[in-house]
Write a structure and sequence with these properties.
Blueprint lengths: L2 H6 L3 H17 L4 H8 L3 H13 L3 E3 L5 E3 L1 H6 L1
Antiparallel strand pairs: 1-2
Helix pairs in contact: 2-3, 3-4
């Protein structure tokens, strides 16, 4: 599965999460789950599964209690 097909398979909500990560990284250099949640007006408990899914698709790098970063494929998809 290439980056384009991975991006095509995302729901609109997942695309919004990906864009939130890109916005936070662009504006502040770092994207933390709590900031992603705040930007999306959801609880961090809702943002965490989305980050796991995006990480599984190779679009973000995310480890528990760490910042979220876009991978090269994630940057290409945004």
């Amino acid at each position: 599965m290439n980056a384009h097909s991975r991006f095509q398979a995302l729901s609109s909500s997942q695309e919004d999460y990906l864009c939130a990560v890109a916005t936070l990284v662009r504006d502040g250099g770092v994207a933390k789950v709590r900031d992603i949640a705040r930007l999306r007006a959801v609880k961090p408990g809702s943002a965490t599964p989305a980050m796991r899914l995006l990480a599984a698709r190779g679009l973000v790098a995310h480890a528990k209690r760490e910042s979220v970063t876009l991978t090269a494929e994630g940057r290409d998809a945004v």
